[in-house]
Design goal:
Radius of gyration: 16 Å
Oligomer: single chain
Strand content: 25-35%
Distance between the termini: 36 Å
Structural class: alpha+beta
Number of helices: 1
Number of strands: 4
Length: about 70
Amino acid sequence: MQKQYISDVAEKSTLSVSGVKAGLTKAEVNTLMDTIITKNISITNSGALVKKSGAQLTQRQVTKFDIA
């Protein structure tokens, strides 16, 4: 999952997380992002994160081929 934020110097910053649980809801993502901002959990090279910009979950599917 990638979460995009705006920093206190108005620059966009992206945080990536792997191993996200199945069935994650929009509300849970919003709560997580709000917590990261309010508790100042992550400071980036662009400064403190102050506003949510977006989020996306990328899923990967693997298809195995049996080769004889």
